[in-house]
Design goal:
282 residues, mainly alpha, MetI-like fold, 2 domains, globular
């Protein structure tokens, strides 16, 4: 029994290290100097042939690339704030629209309720490429094809947070709501004082997933935005992968990766609850 357990831990540790290697590769490369990076990656990056040799720790660590990012790259901060505006603009809208829509589907009866909810689920399953043309035509008609609102507004009305939060609202007993109504509570009070506190786990799970999605958004900005001053940080990274700027690319990737990592670690428990709730069939 002990041997089997040790073998299992060995396999899991090996798989975990294999999964973490790209992250270690990224962090290590951000602390390497230009010459050291060229020695390890030059054959591959320059296309001259050969193999890359990349150690886990830099021989001569340096902070030069981070200094370049923070002091010599004003466009980095512009794109960073664009990402902040897009991400938190979408999350704020989803917090209002998504919670209300989920509450309506979960606790109110109205004509064609199942049909509308089925449409919501179908829209959730459709990838961006399928809706890209229709979204572009609508945004172009509204003169939002080269504006951050052209990215934020479609995200606000995403159906995915409705699906996640809906499952948590369904768990609220109807008897509790009826008791509150008998005590004189109005409908908005039921939503504010009962639905939001009790369904907070689902709301946080939806917000965490939304942050991870919109912080690394690429296809929508590349489709709807033309001016570089409006690009988010996820578009900035592929633009600095030349041989001369490879170290800067590593450093920028680490800086971009950190907020998503911190949000994921902070909301990990809520994500597990959201996954479990989404897996339960009615």
């Amino acid at each position: 029994m002990m041997v089997r357990r040790l073998f299992l831990w060995f396999i899991l540790t090996a798989l975990a290290m294999l999964a973490l290697y790209p992250v270690l590769f990224l962090v290590s490369g951000s602390f390497m100097g230009k010459d050291e990076l060229w020695d390890y990656l030059g054959a591959v990056v320059s296309g001259s042939g050969g193999y890359a040799d990349f150690p886990l720790l830099p021989v001569y660590p340096t902070l030069r690339h981070y200094v370049q990012i923070f002091l010599d790259s004003p466009e980095f901060f512009v794109m960073f704030w664009n990402s902040m505006k897009i991400t938190f603009g979408v999350l704020a809208g989803q917090l209002v629209i998504g919670t209300m829509a989920a509450w309506g589907f979960a606790k109110y009866q109205f004509p064609w309720k199942r049909g509308f909810f089925l449409i919501y689920m179908i829209l959730m399953l459709l990838p961006f490429q399928v809706l890209m043309l229709s979204d572009y035509l609508v945004l172009d008609r509204l003169a939002l094809t080269d504006h951050l609102l052209g990215i934020i507004l479609p995200g606000i009305f995403s159906t995915f947070p409705v699906f996640i939060i809906y499952r948590f609202f369904r768990e609220i007993p109807d008897s509790l709501l009826e008791s509150a109504r008998l005590d004189g509570a109005r409908e908005w009070q039921l939503f504010w004082y009962l639905a939001l506190p009790i369904g907070s786990s689902g709301i946080i799970a939806a917000m965490v997933l939304g942050f991870l999605e919109y912080w690394s958004l690429m296809e929508q900005p590349m489709t709807f935005l033309k001016e570089k001053r409006l690009f988010p940080l996820s578009i900035f990274l592929p633009d600095i992968t030349s041989v001369e700027q490879s170290g800067m690319a590593f450093a920028a990737s680490v800086i971009t990766f950190l907020p998503a990592l911190l949000v994921f670690l902070g909301g990990q428990d809520y994500l597990e609850q959201g996954i479990m709730a989404g897996a339960v069939k009615e």
